[in-house]
Design brief:
homodimer; alpha/beta; three-stranded antiparallel sheet; binds pyridoxal-5'-phosphate; five-stranded mixed sheet; Aspartate Aminotransferase, domain 1; pyridoxal phosphate binding (chains A, B)
Chain lengths: ~450, ~450
């Protein structure tokens, strides 16, 4: 009998082969274990702070709640439960819409919020914004990055993987990049785009200015568009390694480069100390993209009609938070600092914890929300994994999950050099639970290493 | 000098050729006119009720506002501005999340809301839901339909256009469909999917049960997946033409068909009497899609991480509105009825208005939010359009816009038979403004027809 359109056998191999490790085998097993209810699962597989107990910031939630319920603004009792600056802000944002949160906005987002984004970028980078340019609002960075990448695939482009240098604080080696691109091109592959995540996921590094310069120069030479995923720009844990935007570095380099390199940068309300993942809001900024191409992107974006409007307001609030003197300023700063400082401490506890384990080495988490320890698996463990039909780090992470409830993502899901193994965890579990989690990890790991023989001659890196 | 990745000349022709009429030339010109501020623009190009003054329903907004501001639930004064049933509902929905509105949900949506959707479908269609199946929540139907269609293109499929029968109340002629598919296949095109919009956009028809049966049989014979866009299922204006879901018709047909036809149905919070377009929430329901394919769709959906959580709650509320006896029931019913009954009257005013114009004929709007009059353009007008380098109905609609501020979408943007011209408007302008809008339309149209010579021998249909 002939196949139907959506029978499994009719599906394209590209779809079947696509892997998405963050919600892959480990996540599915963790969800099963949770359903069985026998084990408490610690979901450190996704950077989802509120799911691990982080409380939302009060002020932005007040503003968006009021925008959802605009009839409250006329209620004589509204001042009893909402501060005056939240009420004023809600009125401000509603005035930027064409019918409140229930109306589609322009597919690039609300013009008024886009202006606030442009001012934020100007304050951050020190360059006056081009009047012709305003960032576009979207419904979260992951959907936008994947749309742009498929857009680039439509152009006949292919993405070529590259490795970060673990011994160089997860920096990029541009010579290696050049080789990868040359090799791909010699195989007839059209390379069109380069993606960097800075601060890094899964690796937690902040790229240095020098490294960013090399990358931009490389993109210019190779005529690549650079997609700069900078969603963790507020998540910085080491003063010596600040976040520097690709846009600023590019502008600092001056003409002709600053007028040449095509750059798209991303930001989101999901990360930072806000962690408003479920709201699905972000922006992207296009630099040196020709106007006619921008028009085409606008046309394609129009098919999805409108980013969600409440998340656009979250983005507006994120780029223009309460100012000194505002009623809500002190509370806002207290809450924000509380979260960021705790993340900083948690980054430290986690790195130190991993580095205290047998056959585990871990770079310090300079930014973002992740720890990416290298697990030096003994040959016997690798053999046991093979027998079980598993990739070695998947084998390790599954055992870790079954033993401790800690749900991680195996390094193989992100790509890693042959014979080297990692896992990714977030630094997001509640601070008070962290010591216990790391203890439970250490206990599991050290037993695992004993079981499979840890004396196999690896030296500490 | 070699091209850069995103130079216009590097873009794929498919992207450049893609047309999206709803936000096309007419919309851009209308936006310009609005910016110039010389003319008040009546945006009837998109079904965006709140942008045209429709007020949001109070109860769902109260619930979502409380979910955004969960700290209010402990505030002793909350009862002064929120009714007790809204407070209870907010607690209910928050209990279904894993960290409130700020946490990513499963990429299929919150399980608890998916159950409410399943119960709604069961009440609507009279079939007990399959325990294995629950609808998936999404961030609006347009993004999901276009993702699924590109998914289907990935399978090597192509979409083949078809026409609706204007003289048969915009029904589908299955013999024509069979011919189109046979012809496409003889040209080596793989046809995989059939899309219907019921109630119809742009045509406003409700498909009859008999017609739906024919369509389902046709999809079965041709092994096509049917995508049933049913976002206007609550927008019904003629009692003799109720909405019937494709799912119900399929189940009524019994085995083997009911177990064979692959069907995906869509719904959204943007339409109905809610009109919550800016919230970006919807669901889709899969029938007879094999579990292994569903797994693949889940994997691909996971890349976007999570539909926005506040919109999921709107969907929950839409499928389980206040019940008789609830504090907010009367107000909810009053508001809902007010909107629906007014839409019904507006549909009537608009159809009658169009039918009173020279060379204009219009089927009655049975459902959805659109009127799709046929404009019988005189040969001289067609000639003038050609001279201006415009498609004839674009020419007409641009003149209409400049003269009256009414922003419509030319029928050519949707596809229409050779030599036949339409425009689409929504029935959404405020009821009290409707007579004036129709008068201004009539004035423009009748003058246009006189100018280009209306005595060219078309007879009224
Ligand atoms: C590098 C990176 N980009 C984007 C995202 C997702 O952002 P959003 O929630 O805006 O889709 C994540 C989420 O973890 C991420 O790690
Ligand atoms: C037929 C049809 N489907 C879907 C949509 C959009 O739905 P959503 O707002 O959920 O993307 C529209 C919007 O006008 C529509 O007309």
């Amino acid at each position: 009998m002939s196949l139907k359109a959506l029978d499994y056998e009719s599906l394209n191999e590209n779809v079947k082969n696509c892997q998405y490790a963050v919600r892959g085998e480990l996540y599915l097993r963790a969800s099963e274990l949770q359903k069985e209810g026998k084990k408490q699962i610690i979901f450190t597989n996704v950077g989802n702070p509120h799911a691990l107990g982080q409380k939302p910031l009060t002020f932005p939630r007040q503003v968006v709640a009021l925008c959802q319920a605009p009839f409250l603004l006329d209620n004589p009792n509204v001042g009893m439960i909402f501060p005056a600056d939240a009420i004023a802000r809600a009125k401000h944002y509603l005035s930027l819409t064409s019918g409140g949160l229930g109306a589609y906005s322009d597919s690039r987002g609300l013009l008024g919020v886009r202006k606030e984004v442009a001012e934020f970028i100007q304050r951050r980078d020190g360059y006056p914004r081009l009047t012709s340019f305003l960032g576009w609002l979207d419904s979260g960075s992951s959907a936008t990055v994947s749309t742009l990448l498929s857009y680039i695939s439509l152009l006949g482009g292919t993405l070529v993987p590259y490795y970060l240098e673990e011994t160089d604080n997860w920096g990029l080696d541009v010579n290696n990049l050049r080789q990868s691109v040359a090799q791909a091109r010699s195989q007839g592959i059209t390379v069109r785009a380069m993606v960097i995540i800075n601060p890094g996921n899964p690796t937690g590094q902040c790229l240095s200015e020098a490294n960013l310069r090399e990358i931009l120069k490389f993109c210019c030479d190779e005529r690549l568009v650079l997609l700069g995923d900078e969603v963790y720009q507020q998540n910085i844990y080491q003063d010596e390694r600040p976040f520097i935007s690709s846009k600023k570095v590019l502008m600092d380099m001056g003409a002709p480069l600053s007028k040449e390199v095509q750059l798209i940068s991303f930001h989101t309300v999901s990360k930072g100390y806000w962690g408003e993942c479920g709201q699905r809001g972000g922006y992207f900024e296009m630099t040196n993209i020709p106007p006619r191409t921008v028009e085409e992107i606008y046309k394609v974006a129009s098919i999805a009609l409108s980013p969600n409007v409440s998340a656009q307001i979250f983005m507006g609030l994120m780029v223009s938070p309460p100012k000194p003197g505002d009623i809500s300023y002190d509370q806002f700063v207290r809450e924000s600092k509380g979260i960021l400082e705790s993340l900083r401490r948690r980054a430290r506890i986690m790195t130190d914890g991993f580095n205290s384990c047998k056959n585990v080495v871990c770079n310090f988490t300079e930014g973002a929300m992740y720890s990416f320890p290298q697990i030096k698996l003994p040959p016997k463990a690798i053999q046991a994994a093979k027998q079980a039909g598993k990739v070695p780090d998947v084998f390790y992470c599954l055992k870790l999950l079954e033993a401790t409830g800690i749900s991680t993502v195996p390094g193989s899901g992100f790509g890693q050099r042959e014979g080297v193994f990692h896992l990714r965890t977030t630094i997001l579990p509640a601070e008070e639970e962290m010591p216990e989690i790391m203890e439970s990890f250490k206990k599991f790991n050290d037993e695992f290493m004993s079981q499979y023989g840890d004396n196999f001659g690896y030296s500490r890196m």
